[in-house]
Amino acid sequence: MKDRLNKALQREEFFLHFQPQVDILTNRVNGMEALLRWRHPTDGLIPPGEFIPVAEETGLIIPIGEWVLRTACKQNKAWQLAGYAPVTMAVNVSPIQFHQHNFIEIVLDALRDSELDSAYLELEITEGVAMEHVDQVIYKLQALRDIGVQISIDDFGTGFSSLTYLKQFPIHTLKVAREFVRDIPGDPDGAAIVQAIIAMANSLRLKVIAEGVETEEQLSFLQHIGCAEIQGYIFSRPMPEGEIKKMLTPSPA
């Protein structure tokens, strides 16, 4: 797998799909999440759950992740140049990527090369990343925020983050993990956790996005408890650029 992954980058076998992040009241697409896909010439599509852990273990996630970042920024800028209203592009960042000594410079280079305004890039990190070397993480997050990049905590609720530290992190968004969304509103414990996360995010003046929303019942419950945005199959599955851009709003003349 390692050799095939290495060749995949060289042979340009990777590509991106995009999943919309949608305003729960207006159905307007406010953002997109860039999701890595791999089509092997003989094996076909390889699930991310199979190759991403290998990429992380071998360190190949560093060049692959940089490719994702650069490609996502260029695509977002291309949509703007094509006359669509600007949206935020969310890009997942692995722990090994985030802790690179030159990570800030890599982000700046991607923004400069694409000519994308930093306000339209959002980097997603997990709670696990946030809780490693907290002082360094806060410093790096603040540096990213200072250049205008949005920061979100992905899969919130699945880790063990301290609320004390959470208050100190210069972040913009909490993403409610799909593990909790999946069983609402029928599961009282899951519903209580989701409601608590959304209430906390609202009180901290953070944007909150519920991931993995698939049913009208889930959507209705989330709307009732004050969730502003959703991401999930109820609106759209991840799709290639040619299909997903149809969901973008034309920029006002």
TrEMBL record:
<protein>
    <submittedName>
        <fullName>EAL domain-containing protein</fullName>
    </submittedName>
</protein>
<dbReference type="InterPro" id="IPR001633">
    <property type="entry name" value="EAL_dom"/>
</dbReference>
<dbReference type="Pfam" id="PF00563">
    <property type="entry name" value="EAL"/>
</dbReference>
<dbReference type="InterPro" id="IPR035919">
    <property type="entry name" value="EAL_sf"/>
</dbReference>
<dbReference type="GO" id="GO:0071111">
    <property type="term" value="F:cyclic-guanylate-specific phosphodiesterase activity"/>
</dbReference>
<dbReference type="InterPro" id="IPR050706">
    <property type="entry name" value="Cyclic-di-GMP_PDE-like"/>
</dbReference>
<feature type="domain" description="EAL">
    <location>
        <begin position="1"/>
        <end position="252"/>
    </location>
</feature>
